[in-house]
Amino acid sequence: MVKPDSLGQFEQLVMTAILTLRDEAYGVTIHAKVEELARPKAVSLGAVYVTLDRLEDKGLVASWLSDPTPERGGRSKRYYRLEALGERALQESAVTAKRIWDGIVEVWGKEWAKEWGKRWGKEAG
After folding, report:
1. What is the DSSP letter of 69?
2. For residue 70, is the peptide bond before it cis, meaning its omega torsion is within 30 degrees of 0?
């Protein structure tokens, strides 16, 4: 298997959603988590599915169909999980993002990071 190119930001969001959802990672829940992670930006369900297909083509995620359920009119859900290659790619992206964050905090300061964290609902810095 070929080492994938670096992940785009949207791919990182989708993969983070899969990681955090664990056994509940299927299209609709992934879309909801990506919207939460990307706020205030809106995210289309179609963009999530296109990205899931691309990530699967790259060997970063795998999918499988559940058994059909009566609640879904006899249809199956397609579940997703990160492959080992996807986990490594996401880890590399996270390390890079941390370096970027640290560089920003170094220039703009910890007080800026705290204010930013309050604005976006997270503790930062």
Report:
1. B
2. no
Residue closest to 26 by CA, chosen among 18, 36, 16, 34: 18
Both tokens of 38, joined, read 């990307």
Q: Quick: pLDDT tens for 49-88.
A: 999 999 999 999 999 998 888 877 788 999 999 999 999 9
Q: Whole-model pTM?
A: 0.83
pLDDT in tens, 86-118: 999 999 999 999 999 899 888 888 888 888 777
CB 62 within 8 A of CB 81: yes
Taken in order of first residue, the domains within the chain and their CATH numbers are 9-119 (1.10.10.10)
Judge contact between 16 and 87, C-beta under 8 A: no
Instruction: Tell me the two tokens of residue 55.
Output: 């990530």
